[in-house]
Each structure stands twice: as structure tokens, then as C-alpha cells.
Amino acid sequence: MTIGDLPLETSRPSLEATGNRDPGKSGGDAGVPSRPVRGSVVVGLTVAGYLVVSLGLHHNVLSAFTTVTIGEVDVDSHLFIWWLTWFPHSLASGENPLFTTAMNAPAGVNGMWNTTMPVLSALLAPITVTAGPIAAYNLGMILGPVASGTALFLVSRAYVSDWAPRALAGLLYGFSPFVVAHTYFGHLNLVWSVLPPILLWAVKAIFIRVDRPVRDGALLGLAFAVQTGLYTQTVALGAIAFAVTGGVLAVRWPRQAVARLRPVLTAGVACCTVYAVLCAYPLYLLLAGPIRPQGQIRNHEGTGADIVNLVVPSHLTHFRLGTEELAPRLGIYTGEQGTYIGVPILVVLIGAALFVRNRSLRLTAAVATVLLVLSLGVTLIVLGRYPGVSLPWRLLSEVPLIGQAEAWRVPVFVALCVAFMMALLWQHFHARSARPVGLAAIALVVAASCTWLPANAQRTRPADIPAFFTGTGVEQIRGHVVETVPRATRTWHGGAVPLLWQAVSTMAYRTTGGYFIGSDATSPVLFEALPGPYQEAVAAILRHDPVATTPDTAADWLRAHGVDTVLVADLPDTDETPVLRWTSEVTGIPARRVDDVWLFTMDAT
């Protein structure tokens, strides 16, 4: 989060008072009308620049846009592809887009506790239904950093008038170590980090200007509602970051904070009202909906950032400054190593906060510091070791819903603060650009920013799909409930492949398997659908262990879950004959080859 000046007056300052200058404005007197065409060109060129950077970062997917998926592991990318497909399918078929029984049938999955992403799914739906869900997912991964960076570029104009520092801020934020780390792991919902920049606008509108509290509060509620349709955890973290910013402002200016308490509360009521109206059903699913988790999803002890990651980057950063041997010892996996700021940027920003007389810069540094401490989680982690030091996040971990959020995802707001501070520093010295010290300071800002340059380390995974699922053969099981071998699990590599097959079949069938967050009568928290006797026997057969159940028991479980078809795909480097024999005993039907899979229809008796 970021902070601007806190003036005593509550009226909107005039253009003459603010002294804004921008390439989108005419360069003469303040009274000269703006030239929006020129401003649009500047915005367009900046966005095009971000897009070029993103295409360069993901260059290895461009030649195989519909046959590979972005991400080091494929379990999450396949899950996102499934949800991108589910949204337009649910609308076309008249089903509930936020609750589905197409996975984990017949119990289903509560979409609000999972990565449903209805807003993003709607935006990408034209691509999903034409070029396919794999192309839609890859496009979303490429556009996410562009959208995030553009949001900061546009919003920061309220604080920084010149386009160059704003463009740098957008570039730093959109391709920050946080975003790049989640790009590496294929987390589509996190590379679209557009809410934090919007909260930057809200800081000025609600805490500083406060001249239209009802309107601005309502717009903030709308922003939170849209974010709910992208990823609910960012809503919780955004609320925390916004509250931290308000707290810093109140501590710095307590009298003004008291004087503005009423309009701020008015804005808060408007925000909550709009959010509650727009998100009434999603909130019901979160708070009281079926199949929601009944316990803590993650162990808080393991979801804090490693403090050493602050100065030690992962292999996803190009300039690692001799820290390669330390990176493998960080206590979190690469996909969450987004706390990195680095010694060069830290030196620049700490020096600026101490010696540059810029109120916005110092206040933003204070907010960033608080958020950085929160990102460390409930206990200190130092190179994977736990010295037993409790941290402030432990207090938040007990708050309902917010307690389900993961502290290691707070750094997206820290990255926003860093990017904004670099822009403020550039702007501060821009007026002194004719002096050597001003030029040197701007050059230092640019040089330090270069240390966030991503490495050429992004990965893709092949999307191997049997021809059956994209051909006419799949019509034989349209509308059926299908048990698949293999079954969908949360295994990082290959676990969600059956969900990918279901997605590219345009949701032709339902399946008992699934990778999701939920619960059942015996497990307060589930991350995948539990296997029944049939699948347990298949696993034993593949391990060459004795089968501990009977065909009749397995068949009864399948029928009880509505299964009318069993599908066995070719298993790499495996002889499927024993599995086919077992499946034939369970279903009472001989194996039937259709395209490149084996189909069994359940005997009704």
C-alpha cells in the first residue's frame, strides 16, 4: 500500500494546486485543455511495452500455445483450465457457476473455497470456447502481469505526474519477484494482482481527499466484489493492507484522523453495503455453503515467508549476486519466494527514507515495513529454521476467514510499495534533473530496479490429451458419471491430468475424482476426492500388491456414487492388463477399446 500527502482541507485540489504534468496533457498553462488522444497514445505504448516484456518472459509457450501449459508443475494449471471451462459451460447449461458436481460427484465442490475465478473466466470465455481452454489459460498467464502493471501505471497518476516513473513502477510491480514466482508455478489467480493498485486509489479517495465518501466507498466495495471473482484470499489480504495504511496515517496525523472519522466511516459503510449486496451468494457459500472446509486449510507455521528471502532471490531472478548457495535453503518452495527486495533496492529505499525529505516516501516505507513483518507469518523462519520467535500474524490467524489467508502472499502489497517508492524517488529528483545530483539519483533508481530482472527460467509442461477426449468417441459418455483411471489427485506432476481431459471434452461428463478444497463427513479438510474400493484396488494392482477388496464391494461403491462408466486411459510404461481384468470383474462387462482409451459400462445389477 502507498500513502500520499494528508492535507487539512477535504475539497478536491485544483489542477493548478497539484501541479500535475503528464505527457497526456498539453505542456503549457494549467488552463489549457488536455489532449486525451496524446494521453491515450502514451498509455497504449506503455501497455504495449509491458506486453512485449510478458511475451519475452513466456517466449517458450508461443510456438505451442494450445499443446503446453505455463508452469513448472501442471496440477494447478490443469485445475485453472478446468475452472475456465466450467464457467461458460455452466452458463450455457443452466448450472450453478459457483457450485459444481462435475467434480467430486455426487457431493460436488464449493467454488468459493476454490479457484473458480468467474470474473477472469468471463473475460477469457471467448478464447475458451473458440481456441480452447489451454489457449485461454496461457493467454491469461501472459496478460496477468500486463494488467497488474497497467493498473499501477494508471492509478499512480494521482500521486506521480510524469509518465516515466509511473511506467517504471508498473513494470516493477507487474513483473515483481512475487508475480514472477507465481507465474513460474502457474498460479493464474495471483498473476492478476490488480486489487492492490486499486487500493492505492482508495487510500487517497477515502483517507486523504474524503470529499465523496459514499461514492468512493461504493466504488471500493465494487472493487472488492470484482476481486472476489478473481481470488478471495486477496480480498482478505487487501482489507488488512488497507487497514494498515489507515492506521499509519492515523498515527502520523491523529487530529486529522479524528476530524475525518465520520466521512471515513461513511465510506466504510458504503463499501460494506455494496460488497454485501453484490456478494451475498458468494458470502453464503463461504460462510455456510455445502462442502466448505471445516478446519484450518494450511498449517500457519509453514505459510510465512523466510526472512532471508528478503535479500536472497530464487533462481527466477537474473542477478543473484552470489547467493545461489543460500536459495535452496529457504524455508518455502519457489512458487512462494516472492518476498525478495534485494540489497540494492533496500539500500536505495532505506537511504531515501532517511535522508530525502518526502512525506509520501517515508509513510509508504512505514506501511511496507508493517506489511513485510506480517508476511513473515506466525513465527520467524531463517533459512528454513524456526528459532521460536512469534510474530504479529499469529493474532490475525485466529480471525474467521482472514485466518485462512496465507501470510506469504502479503508480499504482493510490499512489492506495490517498493514500486511506488521508486516512482516517488524518481519524481522527487526529476525537478533537480538539471543538477548532477538529480541525474545521478534517477540513474541509481533505474540501476537498482534492474536487479529485479527475471531470469530466463519459466517452464512449460506438455498437455498430453488422448484423442478420445477431443474426438467423436467422447459423445458416448456425454452426461455420464465416469470413474477414470488415472483418477484426479493433488499430485504436483500429473495429478490433475484427468481434469484437463474433462475440460477439453467441454465437460462432457462428471467424475468422482477431483482436486479441490472442501470436506466430507469424515474429513474436516479435503484437498482431493478420497478414493473408493475400486481405486484402492487399482493402486494396489499397480504396486503389485494383493487386492484387499472384492469386485462386488467395489461395484457397490461405484453405483452408490452414480458411476455408470469406467474409463481406463493408457498408463505410461505400464501394462494395463491387470487393471483391465479387475475393472471387467467389477463392472461385469468386457473391456471395449474406443479410440485410445478403454471403456466399461457398469452392469445395472
Q: What's the quick description here?
A:
This protein has 605 residues and is an alpha+beta fold. It has helices at residues 15-18, 36-57, 75-93, 118-130, 133-155, 163-174, 177-184, 188-191, 195-209, 213-228, 232-252, 254-259, 261-278, 280-288, 343-355, 359-375, 393-396, 411-430, 436-449, 497-504, 533-542, 551-560, 577-587; strands at 68-70, 99-100, 109-110, 460-462, 481-485, 510-511, 515-518, 526-528, 565-569, 592-594, 597-601.
Please give a structural write-up:
There is one protein chain. This protein has 605 residues and is α+β, with helices and mostly antiparallel strands. The chain folds into two domains: 15-64 and 132-452, no CATH class; 470-601, no CATH class. The chain contains 23 helices and eleven strands. It has helices at residues 15-18, 36-57, 75-93, 118-130, 133-155, 163-174, 177-184, 188-191, 195-209, 213-228, 232-252, 254-259, 261-278, 280-288, 343-355, 359-375, 393-396, 411-430, 436-449, 497-504, 533-542, 551-560, 577-587; strands spanning 68-70, 99-100, 109-110, 460-462, 481-485, 510-511, 515-518, 526-528, 565-569, 592-594, 597-601. The strands form four sheets. It has a five-stranded mixed β-sheet, covered by helices on one side. Strand 2 (99-100) and strand 3 form a beta hairpin. Helix 3 crosses helix 4 (118-130), helix 10 (213-228) packs antiparallel against helix 11 and helix 21 (533-542) packs antiparallel against helix 23 (577-587). The protein is elongated. The N and C termini lie far apart (63 Å). The model is unreliable at 4-34 (pLDDT under 50).
